[in-house]
Every structure is written in structure tokens, then in C-alpha cells.
Amino acid sequence: RRGVLTIPVVVHVVHNPDNPEQNIDDEQIRSQFTVLNQDFRAANPDVSQVPDVWKPLVADTQVEFQLASEDPLGRPTSGIVRVETDQEGFDTDDAVKSANSGGADPWPSDQYLNMWVCQLVGGLLGYAQFPGGPPQTDGVVILHSAFGTTGTAAFPFDGGRTAVHEIGHWLDLFHIWGDDDGACSNDDRVADTPNQADHNLGAPAFPHVTCNNGPNGDMFMNYMDYVDDRAMFLFTKGQSERMNACLEGTRASFIV
Ligand code: ARG
Ligand code: ZN
Ligand code: CA
Question: Is Nucleus included in the keywords of this UniProt record (predicted)?
């Protein structure tokens, strides 16, 4: 592909009227799109904090995101759907993705990235479905207070990076440590990210060496680690190639 690909997004705000703050305002939603379109284009102001050794790996993925302007029937839309629920909070069981279980049905997931924003239980910030799964549950789910940078967005997840991370999964990226619980035996199937033992939290000091990956150590400032929003700054070229391969393959329906 040549040039920038823009993915149409529908945001389903699923809120409980007993907790009005769950019904986040349009400004908070727009603030999330600002972050997405900076981070996926390597135009985020904090990209300058990538350690010098890895600056050559910083990728502009050439992917952008936009609230849908046409609904599935071709009518004008804001791309924002607001649905009341009687649920206190949602889990990873996909209940938020169906009106029958107190959530909101997806728009056709071969044409729209569905984003559900809601209360989540158990400290969960968000979760995503990888490419190739059932269309009825395809998309990403984000905790309202880890969404965007204004309104209910709360430190340390008030930088909009949960959605960046989850969309990374939606475009086929694995966690940078390979989900092997510190074993050094599995990696993320991306050649230019160092093999690292486990996830990192908070805002680590560089370098943090594991799995004999010295002297530079873990690329903990990657969006696919678990550090705080203020401590993650890049996708690599290898990750960008993997996401764009997904957009040429399993998710080719987005290329118009
Ligand atoms: N725990 C979530 C996941 O595995 C997302 C973590 C996002 N991290 C952040 N700093 N916002 O998908
Ligand atoms: Zn993840
Ligand atoms: Ca590992």
C-alpha cells in the first residue's frame, strides 16, 4: 500500500445511569483520536524520549483513525453511539458487545473498528480481539477512565495509550515480552524488538536488562509493554510491518 490508510471507528459508550460519569463527553472521545493519530504516525510529542539507540526503529505506521461519518446504512453519523445499561461493570466475557447482555451490538466489523467504552471490573484497562476471530465480537474494549486525555481519564492511564495498545493487538501485535511469564522462551514474533522476560510497570529507568538483552535491555517504552501512559512512546518498524501485513491480509476489507 502507498499512503495513509484511515480506519473508520464507531465508539459505543455503554453507561449505567446510576454512574453518570460513565457517559463520557464528546471532547474526551475526540481527545482519544488526537492521541491515536499522533502515536500511529510517530507524531507524539514524547517520541523524543525514545533512547537514542532505538530512534532509528521508530515507525510511522501510515494508519490513522477517524470517527465514522456514515452509518452502516449510509446515513450521516457522529460515529458515537450512546447506550444505557443496567450492568455495574463488564468483564472480558464480551457481554458489552451485545445488546442482549446489556451492551451494544457492533457495526459490521469488516468496515468499522468497533470501540466499546464502559466500566470494567477487576482493574482491567481494556482488551482486544485479534484478527481472524468472530465478527460479532471483533474490536476493542476500553475502561472509560483509561480513555482519552480529558474528562474521566485518570492518572497514570490518562494518556490515551490503552487504546493505542489495544489497537496494536487488533492489528495482530503480541505483547513485547511474548507472554511467557519471564521465561525468555517466547517472543513477540517481531525481529527488531529485543527479547525481554516479562512485562514492565510504572515508569522504569533505562536500561532494564533481562534475557541477556544487554546493553540496551527491554524496550519497555514500547506501546506493547505494560508501563504507564507517560512512559510509552513508540511502535517499531517491525511492528508497523506486522500491522500493515494484517491490513493487507486478514483485515484487507479496510483497504478501499
Ligand atoms: N492490560 C491491558 C492489555 O493487556 C492494557 C495495558 C495498557 N497500558 C497502558 N499503559 N495504558 O491489553
Ligand atoms: Zn495487551
Ligand atoms: Ca519473554
Answer: no
Q: Which atom of ligand 1 is nearest to the CA of 169?
A: 12
CB atoms within 10 A of CB 12: 22
CB distance 39 to ligand 1 below 6 Å: no
Give the tens place of pLDDT for each residue, 136-151.
999 999 999 999 999 9
Q: Is residue 50 within 8 Å of residue 58, measured between CB atoms?
A: yes
Q: Dihedral sign for Cα 140, 144, 150, 153, please.
A: negative
ipTM of the complex: 0.93
Q: Hey, what amino acid is at 172?
A: D
**Residue 225 beta carbon below 6 angstroms from any ligand 1 atom:** no
Calpha distance 54→192 (Å, rounded): 10
Query: What type of residue sits at position 194?
Result: P
Nine-digit cell at 93? 466475557
Contact present, 91 and 20 (Cβ < 8 Å)? no
Nearest one of 158, 156, 197, 164 to 179, comparing CA atoms: 197
pLDDT at 72: 98
**Full DSSP string of 79-145:** SEEEEE---S-B-TTSGGG-GGGTS-PPPPTTT-EEEEEE-BSTT--EEEPPTTS-GGG-SEEEEGG
DSSP symbol at 252: G
Which residue's alpha carbon is nearest to atom 1 within ligand 1?
125
Nearest to 61 by CA among 245, 251, 249: 245
